[in-house]
Amino acid sequence: MKLLFRHSQHGHPGNFMFRLWSQIELDEEENELLEKYGMRNAILIEGHQPTLKRNCILWTFTLWFFSVILFSGGYTYSRFIGARWAYSSSLSMDWIIFLSIVAAVIIGMVVYHNLRETIYVKDLLIGRHFKCKSVTGLLEKKSWLISACQSLSNVLENSKNWHGTEAIDIYPR
What we know:
173 residues; three-stranded antiparallel β-sheet; alpha+beta; extended; single chain; 53% helix; two-stranded antiparallel sheet
């Protein structure tokens, strides 16, 4: 197993945002073990974010509200004031509701995946970007990833013998 990192930063002095990209490369045997035991969806690092759902709902609702306005194109406003010259949507209200719900679901998924700190094995198989406000936060995240990948490597090594019997001698002290 190889763990790849790429570091970058953007912003201006005093307001830098540090980025860390990470990906794992598995050899053929490790990849087969990962598939055999269905570990792609396993949690590698579990993040504690008690406000994640609330933040996602708030962002989703806010962006959904604006998508309704965008899709309606002033539909309700022009009907409310009765103006013939006002801009109105060519979409029916059913389509406006449908498109805004689809947009809300997509927005919710994107917001959730951008805010979550939980890291799955599949995230690192395809590569994942992390954002940190400080260099120490970047180094801490990198250290967590190294430790978690070492644990994953140990699990994969031990999984070679899961269907066999492992004998460990225990001696008194």
